[in-house]
Amino acid sequence: MADHTSFATFTGHQLHRAFFEPHGVDTAVNPDPIFGYFHGPVIDPNPFWRPPIAMGNPRFAITAAIIDDPTQQPPNPRIRMSKMNFLVCPVVEMPPLHQCGMTFETQPDFRRHLRMVHPGCFENPDRRPINRFEENAGQLALIRYIRSRAWRNAVFMHEPGRGPASSRVGYWADCMSTIARIDVDWVQQYGRLFHRDQQPVAPTSGGRSRRRGQNPPPAPIPFVDLAALLAEEYGDDPDYETDDSSTDAFDNGSDDGNDGNDSHGDDSSTDAFDNGSDNGDDGDDSHSDGGDDGDGN
Prior knowledge:
23% of the residues lie in helices and 2% in strands. By secondary structure, the chain is mostly helical. The protein has a domain at 17-190. Helix 3 packs across helix 5 and helix 5 packs across helix 6 (184-190).
C-alpha cells in the first residue's frame, strides 16, 4: 500500500487518504451474504409483479404488513437491502444496466418507495438498529463503489446527481476529489473525478409543464446591413435599379410613391369597395345619377 503522507481537512471532519484505503476495501462484496445489497445494480426477482390485493389499483398503499403477509407473496423469494445504503433506488428497470435512481432523504421514505414501486424486490428490514458489523461491511463496499468510479459511471433512469444531502455518497466523493487535488499518487491510482457529471434538468413548477420553443442560439445573431449587402451584390448589375423610383414588393406600379391597392395613381380610380360611382360614395346602385334624389324608381 502506498505511503499515506497527504492529508486533507474537510468541513466537520478530518478525513485523510487512509480513511478511503482501509484493509478490506479491495475484497468488499456486494451483495453481502448476510446483510444484503449496499448499492446497485439490483435485478428485481419479480419484475412487474404486484400483490393480489393491489392488482388493478396502482395507487393502492402497499404497507409493510402486506409485504409480510403469507397470502401476498411473489412467485420468487424477495432479496434483502442493507440498512447501510445510499438512499438511491438501485433496482434495474431497463435491463441490463438502467437503475431506477430515485433519491430520498430518509430510510422510511426510501422503504415506502421500494414497497410501492418495486413490491416484489425487497423484503422488509428488521426493526433492530444497524450493528457495527453491518456498518463496517457497508462502509467498505460503498467506499469501493465510489473509489472505483462505478458510482460515477452508473446508468440511472432518474438522474440522482450527487445523491441526497443526507447520504454519504456526496460527502465521500467530495473528500476523494479534494484528496485528488493535492495527492498525485492518489490520482495515478484512482483518478481525479468521483462525482457524477451533472445532467441538465428542466425546471418544474409542480404543475403541468408548458410547451417550450427551441433553445436560443449560443451566440447572438450578428447584424446584417441589408442595403449594403444588396449594393455589394448588385451594384454593378445594370438590370438592378437603386434610385428612388424603383418599385418594391408593395408597389403596384403607381408613380405617386404611395403603396396601395389602386391600379392608377389618380384619385378617381376605383378601389375594392367602389361599385363604379363617380361621386366617391360606395353604395348598392349600379349607376350614379346626379338628378335623382336617391330614389331608384
